[in-house]
Amino acid sequence: MIGMSTNSPRYAIDFAKRLRKMEIDFIDAPVTGGDKGARDGTLTIMAGGKPEVFRRVVPVLEAMGKNIVYTGETGTGQMVKLLNQIVIGMDMLGVSEALALARRTDTDLDALYRVLSTGAANSFTVQYYLPKMIKNDITPGFRAIHLRKDLKYVMDVANELNMPMMGTSLLLQLYNALVAQGFGDNGTQALIKFYEKFSH
User: Of 2, 77, 172, 197, which sits 20 to 30 A from 94 (CA to CA)?
Assistant: First the structure.
């Protein structure tokens, strides 16, 4: 069995143990690449589980993704995905703050996009989401409420380890506020709405 949703590493390990009792192998294989990657078949898939099981399912994963990465034992796929979500969230935070300040200072937004998308700040968030944010398009590619869920899993892991995660903690609170304001079913780029509300 291949589990492709994003959950906690602990859940993946516990689920694999339950399946093992029924002699069913399990691979935790969450994905990244957004709705565009899913449509284009270019997703990056991070897969955790027994190496021999991973090798058997690679052809299945290759039908959906371009980059198939073996991350280690069961649960590591989920852990790498959560680490991925930290970076995605932080990137969205930076893009949102930059765009909000750009609007307040009447900065040329086309010039801003050209610089961010071709310089050191370039990222998937800049390339794919910033043009949407400039057009006030907050339709979901990946819903805000789902990123909030993932960030909660990150903090669960960090809390178990007594590890400070100041940036992720702040990010989770921002997405809590966004969901509370009714933007949970919008895309993660709806974070710009939080800044718009408090920037006037």
Answer: 77
